[in-house]
Amino acid sequence: MPESIIPPNRAKKALAEGKSLVGIMLVELRQPSVMQMLAHAGHDFVLIDGEHGPFNIETVADLCRAARDVGVTPIVRVPDVSYAFITQPLDGGAQGVMIPRITAPEQVREALRVIKYPPLGMRGSVVARGHTALKSGNVSQAMSDANNESLLIVQIETKQALQRVDEIIGIEGVDVALVGPTDLSVALGVPGDMEHPKLIEAIEHVVQACRRHRIVPAIHINVLSQAAFWAKKGMRMISYNSEVGILIGAATDAVRSVREGFGRS
């Protein structure tokens, strides 16, 4: 069999091997070299925020290819379940998509139909694009390999998703269930309280459901101590903070330290 023109999905392979992964949300910076920085820091994956972020499709494609080239798996959070929103990032080089605001299993099934090529789905076939590193090759093999390598993350961040979590993550083809704790806290009536017992109980419920269905449990969290807490609670894929949050946090600490130095001089 000839060599595949579909680049391997390092994150998906690592998860299948039982490893745990650390990533980050990219929300603002559009310079592809940011991916080299994330790789140097040891990130396994990056969530490119197409829901709230300011990125157009050209930028998404550039970021995805830059990430993949340095060994960071690029995953795009799309704004909605639609053909263009999902297939354009994938054709541009994304190796996975994350679907926000899930409320029902039907959304997940529709997302899978768009993500996967026939016979598993309805994605239109194309080669010599970002997802093949601009290589051409056997169309049938490329579609099969892409189906195997693509990663689907569903977000559990609504009350409906929490109530129907077994139905949602039990669908074949779902790889990861990622808790969006901020929106989930809003849905539970405790907005922004990341340590509220009601929210903790809900997140633990999702982790247990993932274990039942052999789906990877994941979370995006902005506080380091909370990231460590959930890592110990069984989360295997943790997106910690964003490039903006880390930059501002580190810069704030540096400025404070320098100003304290001025005071001692």
List the helices and strands and how they pair.
Layout: H1 10-16, E1 21-26, H2 34-41, E2 45-49, H3 57-69, E3 73-77, H4 83-92, E4 96-99, H5 105-115, H6 139-149, E5 151-156, H7 159-163, H8 165-169, E6 176-179, H9 181-187, H10 197-213, E7 216-221, H11 224-232, E8 237-242, H12 243-264
Parallel strand pairs: 1-2, 1-8, 2-3, 3-4, 4-5, 5-6, 6-7, 7-8
Helix pairs in contact: 3-4
Proper CATH architecture = Alpha-Beta Barrel
Q: What distance separates the N and C termini?
A: 70 Å
Q: Rg from C-alpha positions?
A: 19 Å
How many helical elements? 12
Largest sheet properties: 8 strands, parallel, barrel
Strand order across the largest sheet: 1-2-3-4-5-6-7-8
Mean pLDDT: 96
CATH level 1 name: Alpha Beta
Beta-strand proportion = 15-25%
Instruction: Note the run of SSEs as H and E.
Output: HEHEHEHEHHEHHEHHEHEH
Domain tally:
1
- Outline: globular
Low-confidence stretches: none
CATH homologous superfamily classification: Phosphoenolpyruvate-binding domains
Care to count the β-strands? Answer: 8
CATH topology annotation: TIM Barrel
Helix content: 40-55%
Specify the structural class.
alpha/beta
Give a quick precis of the structure.
The chain is an alpha/beta fold and 265 residues long. The protein is built from 12 helices and 8 strands.
Q: Can you give a write-up of this model?
A:
The protein is of the alpha/beta class and 265 residues long. It has one domain (10-264): Phosphoenolpyruvate-binding domains (TIM Barrel). The protein is built from 12 helices and 8 strands. It has an 8-stranded parallel beta barrel with strand order 1-2-3-4-5-6-7-8, surrounded by 7 helices. Strand 1 (21-26), helix 2 and strand 2 (45-49) form a beta-alpha-beta unit. The longest helix has 22 residues, at 243-264.
